[in-house]
Design a protein that fits this description.
51% of the residues lie in helices and 18% in strands. It is globular and about 75 Å long. The chain has a 6-stranded mixed beta sheet with strand order 13-12-9-16-14-15, sandwiched between helices. It has a 4-stranded antiparallel beta sheet with strand order 2-3-1-4, sandwiched between helices. It is α/β, with parallel strands linked by helices and 539 residues long.
Amino acid sequence: MPQTADDMDAVAVRTWCSLALEALGREREAIDAINVYPVADGDTGTNLYLTVESAAQAVEAVFAAHETGATVPVAADAVRAMAHGALIGARGNSGTILAQLLRGMAGVLAAGHDADHLRRALAVAADAARRAVAHPVEGTVLTVATAAAEAAARTGAEAGTAAVARAAYEGARTALEATPGQLAVLGRAGVVDAGGRGLVTVLGALVEAVCGRAPEHAYVAAPALPVPDDCAADEAADGPAFEVIYLLEATDEAVDRLRIRLDGLGDSLVVVGGDGLWNVHVHVDDAGAAVEAGVEAGRPYRIRITHFGADRAHPHTEPVQRAVVVVVPGDGLRGLCEEAGATTVLARPGEPPASGELVDAIRRAHAREVVLLPNDAELRHTAAAAAEQARAEGVRVALIPTRAAVQGIAALAVHEPDRSFDEDVVAMTAAAGATRYAELAVAERQSWTMAGICQAGDVLGLIDGDVAVIGEDVSRTARDVLDRMLAAGGELVTLVLGEDIPDSLADALEEHVREGHLAVDTVVYRGGHQCAPLLIGVE
């Protein structure tokens, strides 16, 4: 049994995370069973569990770092780790909102961990969660969080941390019972809000962490009623086809623009985080466009795309012939992609293809369904125009916003024409989005770059489009670029060699990766005459 700790110190935070994970593990299936909003996909309990699991792991890592010195982390370190872990591991709509609630609490509890700070932490958390949701709806986890904060605020100045936690829990429990009367879909299904029930579980764990015992009035859920078939069908028919989630490195201003862009693409938009790191969640019909919006805002990674059901977006579509049209920067990759069955468009140095060339390639493919891979950020608008023209001619076109040839290779590698079009596009989009890209170039003149001043003849290492390394030779610059890219992790390195790059350099880079980065594989392709002497991809 946890020790009584009328204070939200580091040990209490650790205990809270552990108890919350244990409780959500017990209730995961029951919460999944009542998940009918915003999508009846039966995974809210699982998503909340995975989100808290990530938070708990982050807190444990903080404690492990202190074990050698036999010291205990300060509360600020523990709550910040909890919030960061939840942010990077958030899953689904409710998990993303819970991550923002924990982040809001951490911002206050890092400054103090007495009863007054807990009261203010709950209020800040509820407000932050509402602001993170594009269109807040009552009868959801947001309502439950607000009720918890308001109940905590009503406790007297003499109340301790335990009393504040108990009040928050009771307020949340009461609000949860009222959710079926606030949200029609819950009332029709005869269930409480699944995300709200998960939050009550997390707050119950908080009470146990600071009081040493579980709440006196433990929440006992009524047996979950089966969700009416017409209710689930209506929700599925009305909603978008895909759930898109990714972590995003971007500025506040870029995220403000991203919110507007994504709000126009779909619904259930939740963007949480701050200080340069965000977790983006949205339901859309065009998964590629949602990822492309993230690319325009910053650097998206850990991209997860879930299809809510193959029949939702196109319930009457029969299997048809499919093709991939890919823009390639050199003859070597042209042959590689054509061997994989793709129709190619060659982008010659200084001569990017026009939209008409892309439309001609789509026509040459003689397919009713086409996946278009532009492989160049500068071709985004050109490719979009070509796709629109082809659609007007009756071709179903999906434009995946690949920004480099290595992203196109990754997408083509997972292409499977035998599965449904939507599922194929999802898999290819996810593979491309999970691939960071780089290239080497030779500076033509002295100029300012993100990495400093370069001189004519310097070798430039560009990562995700920006100059990150300035070197004197290709070999050293390539190794520096690889080390920077692999510092963030990776499983597969792709090297595309220009015609003037010897095989010996590829061998040296393979050995460098093998010696410095365990369990990372390397694959090498000959690109032939291409714009850059070396292209690099890290998946």
